[in-house]
């Protein structure tokens, strides 16, 4: 079962995949179209590919978060992922 905490963690972890964070922090929204076009399985593979990098750096907390993200993406249906992705892509940087 996917919990709210798992969904929140998934949003936080996937945000830098979908958006250029330097631009975001500058108030501009720049979407990585390659990532935006990924299927659920492609995104899952991308996260799994990056997982060993974070798992080996001694940051257990982040490793646990990534485990939750992998579990969430594995449990989602393709339709659920598409809805999730579209909601995430609607985010806008804060304006001052």
TrEMBL record:
Domain of life: Bacteria
Record protein name field: Phage protein
Protein source organism: Streptococcus vaginalis
Lineage per the UniProt record: Bacteria, Bacillati, Bacillota, Bacilli, Lactobacillales
